[in-house]
Amino acid sequence: MNTTPATSRFDWHTTAADAIGGIDLTGRRALITGAASGIGVETARALASANAEIILAARDLATAAAVADDIRAGTGNENVHVAHLDRASIDALAAAAVREPLHILVNNAGVMAIPELRRSPEGHEAQFATNHLGHFRLTTALLPALRAANGARVVSLSSRAHLNSTVDFDDIDFRVRDYEPALAYAQSKTANVLFAVEAARRWAVYGIEANAVHPGAILDSNLVRHYDRTTVDQLRNSDRYTYKTVAQGAATSVYVATSPELDGIVGRYFENCREADPDNPGAAGIDAAGVAAYALDPDDARRLWDLSEQMNS
């Protein structure tokens, strides 16, 4: 394991095309969840441009198929495929995927700010179930394919929102406390980082490198579909955030998934294509918000892993 702080020539302005420049992924397979819209599309496009075989995992097969056609036409890479991904299809997708090595897994799909308390069929709060438990189940099911790659990378998309909440192990599913959409989202994003920390520890022996990323603040995304127009306009005019394009938002995922600069770098959190510093509560504009110490806590990471296995059983 490399303990040296990661450095980078990239920054807030970097696009996915910039991050993939000069990298050849011929012979490598990549699976991206949530690849029918937003930064998932741009992540897939960048990886395809470097000649990787791409699997677009999405709920909406028709939209994903159109995206695949567009990526093939734009990159000349015919090895772009579509796979159905929802709660019921995870095991089937994993069973198909493990037939060959999987070199890159980008856990990109997510939901945000569901206005009212919703639960998965198993009874878990919907944002935690989608953003963390679903990806936990998929990634662990894909372990044989990741091991077979002899050097796979797993990228989990978190958010600066993780700074707003730890994982409340006593009430993850909001059975006691009042439901707050932003708090539930923040908890799930902390879980994404903790997952990367523990996956890195458990799977280092297999050469699997796991990290988490914050893509940046992006309004042109389906992630904000639960916001009304007034809220979106207020956010767009806020002095607190400077918003990235979708291509810029995909850059950190692409960088962490492919850069040779990060060989041996595991269990860390990146933003703006750089390893994050400790949290900066006053961050505004293009300032890096940093990472909370609790999101990197190894004890909480182990605890969450064990609990996630129970919740997915």
TrEMBL record:
The keyword Membrane does not apply. It comes from the Bacteria. Signal peptide: none annotated. One of its GO terms (molecular function) is oxidoreductase activity. InterPro entries: NAD(P)-bd_dom_sf (IPR036291), SDR_fam (IPR002347). Keywords: Oxidoreductase. It holds the Pfam family adh_short. Belongs to the short-chain dehydrogenases/reductases (SDR) family. This is Probable oxidoreductase. It comes from Nocardia bovistercoris. The lineage of its organism: Bacteria, Bacillati, Actinomycetota, Actinomycetes, Mycobacteriales.
